[in-house]
Every structure is written in structure tokens, then in C-alpha cells.
Predict the 3D structure of the following.
Amino acid sequence: MFDGSSKGTLDSRRAGILLHITSLPGGGSTGDLGPSAYQFVDFLQCAGIGVWQMLPIGPTKPDGSPYQTSSMHAGDPRLISLQPLVDEGWVEPEVLEREQISDQEKALHLLEAWRAFDSQADEDARGALARFVHEEGHWLKDYALYRALKEEQQNRGWWDWPELIRKRDPAALVRASQRLSHKIDYICFEQHRFFRQWIALKAYANDRGVHLFGDMPIFVAHDSAEVWARQELFLLNEEGQPLVVAGVPPDYFSATGQRWGNPLYRWEQMEQENFQFWVDRMRTQLRLFDLTRIDHFRGFESYWEIPAEDADAINGHWVPAPGDALFDRLHQIYDPLPLVAEDLGIITPEVVALKERYGLPGMKVLQFAFSGESDNPYLPFRHEANSVVYTGTHDNDTTLGWYLALDDGLRQYVDDYLGRSREAMPWPMIRSAFASRSLLAIIPMQDILALDGSHRMNLPGTTEGNWNWRFDWDQLEEDLALRIRRRLEMYGRLPT
């Protein structure tokens, strides 16, 4: 077992902004990897911000949740920018003159780009695509076939597909691959474009001193390429339905807990395979990001198992997980492990020990700090250096919205603690995060812009109206970057 001698993943004081890439401005239904992403990096560099944190970037379901994606490796096609495709000659320039482009229209333009590429690309471009398909074949082959079959099956879940396909009969898969070869080729091209654009953005950010900070859900969606392709790794019945599902017990966010619905792992099977499933996940994640947050870290010590037939999470129970064995394996490859543990919620001494054994930073959320007790672990003076402090997360209200919703007594306590600053909220909280001992301080973009609760990203326990927030460049005051930079210099967080 690993002896805990690894240094932590955070090596100096930095500050970051939490902004999912879908929240960038632009003419599509979401932000993407186009000019606004590069403009945002420029803003971060100007402000002295060294980290850009995002949510998971996989292909989402209709509700838009980045935590329920159809692949743990693939990128969301909505994030592909049309600008580089125009620059490469695969899409007509006129498309960029439109103020708004729907998802359906973007999909048509991506198909247009593939057809142009297929008929006109030179040997170098074809070779680059072929190398990508070969190098990423360990996930791309199954994902492309899954996507093609899902379209053929009118978007039904894979458990409702014909039995031979559902159970992955080898001869049936060969026939499907031949029948759907043109669609599969297009999906491979689409993913190549996504990865090409993402790697270019990452290089641009890194060259300007900005690290990309990703987010990896502990569980994968039931209707996903990985669950269909590796059914033996999940607790499923013969029909492909979960026997038990993931979630969390009642907590700060929900009185009935949260029933996420993800199938749970057959950990013993994963361990027999030397955790290759997780090694592959980490490889993809670290190709795209410099640092990764593992969502629901406590699930690696024990996870909340809910009967699949239950409508909520109340009747679940904790089941031990082989976190030590998994992280021993990952540590053989990555030292230090470039991970941040999302250790919020019900955290036991065993979870703390697992996190500390591998030198993983945890999270400190200032909105949780003001219970009135001086031993609250989220209070700034109790933060350990190897941690990441947040004013709030994507699951919280904006800090201004949170503050305005407090009762008078608690609001006065917050004001007293923060010193009754002359600055309007949320800036006293932002200053407190910057002043924290935590090596990394992350501020949601909504707090940087001092927005109220109508701009929150997600309301846990609900499935409608989430994940849609976007900002506009007009919301950035002219001197905002300079004001942020001055504060970061004051608190020793400018990049070295």
C-alpha cells in the first residue's frame, strides 16, 4: 500500500475562476471552443488568474447535466467551434455571419464539414484523423458504434435495443459496424475535431500561465457507451437494468437525499482487471486538463447504495469501496496524483485518511462556514494549505444570493466575521477566499460579476432549468481585471 509520502498536487498559491465552458458568450445554444474561450483566457491572464475550472465536458442528455453524460471519454459536440472549420475550408464562411445558431444547425454544419473533409482532405489531414482513431480506439470504437446505434434505434436506451445488440453478440456488432460505417466515420471525425480544438485551447492557456482544471464524476450514466460496452463491470440484471443505483443520503441540499440513478460498479471485477477502467479514464482526463476534481470522493471509501426501485435516496445504505487499492494503482502511474477530492457532505475519519494518504487536496466552501461555531472546518483560519477554497460551487446559490437569503442574525454574524467591509457583497467573501491559507482559491464567475441568485448554475434535486447560465462580455466592468490582479498581488496569489 502507498505510504503517503507523495507531495501534494498544489505547489504554490494561485487563484482560479469556476466557469463551465458552456457559460461562455456566443451565438450557439452554449459557449464553445471558439473565440470567446480564447478571449476568456486573455481576461484570466490579465487578471492574474492562474486556473480555469470547468465542469465535465462529455456529451450531455436533454437535461444538459454535465454529470450524466453518454461517454466518460468523448467530448460534447456542442462545444466544437465552427470558426476553425471555416478557417480550414470545411464550412462556408457565411455561417459565421449569423447571430444565433441552434444545436440542429450546428450539427448540420459539422456534417457539412465531414463531407467536405471526406472528399477534399489531403494526405496529412487524413493521416492525422487515422492516428487519432487508432490512438483513441480503446474507447472511440465503442462510443462511435453506440452513438450510431442509438440514432438508428430512435434514441432509445441501449437496454431497449434488439437482444443480440444489447448483449453485444460479436457477429451482430460486426454487422452493425458495417451497416453504420458512414455514421461511425463521421462520429470519429467529430471527436477528432473536438480533441484538436481542445488541445489547441489548452496549449494557448498554458502558454499564458493558465492551468485548466477539470471535473470527473465518480459514476457514469446508465445510458452511456461505457455501461453498454462493459456491462460486466456494473451491477445490472440480465435485461441491462441496474440492481441498485447511486446517490447520497439526506444532507444540506436535500431532505430526502439525492437519487442520481447511476448504476453502481462491480468493484471486485474492476480490481481483477487492475483497475484499467480507471487508468483509461485518468489518461483521457489528463490529456485535456492539468488538474482534475473527482466528484463525490467519499464514494471511493464507501458509497450510498439505493434500491433501484426506490424513488428517493432515504432507504439507501453505505457499502465499502476499494479506494486504497484503486489509488495505489493510479499512484503507480501518476505521482503526484493530479487530483482534488470533492470531500463535501458526510465525511468520516476513514474518508479523511484516504484523502490524506495520497496527498489529495480537499475542498473548503465559505458558504458552509458560518454556522456560528468557531470549530467549523470551513472557516478560513481552519483551512489547511493543501486544499482548494471556494466562495461557493456550481451546486450553491451565488454568494450574493446566499447572503441576501440569510436571516438578519446570521447576516450580521457574517458581516462581523468579514469585518464589515466597505465593499459590497460578494467581494468581502472573495477577499476572505483569497486571504485563506488554501493554496488554491476558486471563485465562481457569478461571484466575480456580483450576480444574485437568479444566475445560479444548478439547484440540486431538480432536473429542469439548470446548467443554462451564460454571461455576457458587457457584464465585465472595464477595470475588473485590474482590480482582481491587485487583490491577488496583495494575497500572494499571482502566478510566478
In short: The longest strand covers residues 211-216. The first helix runs from residue 35 to 47.
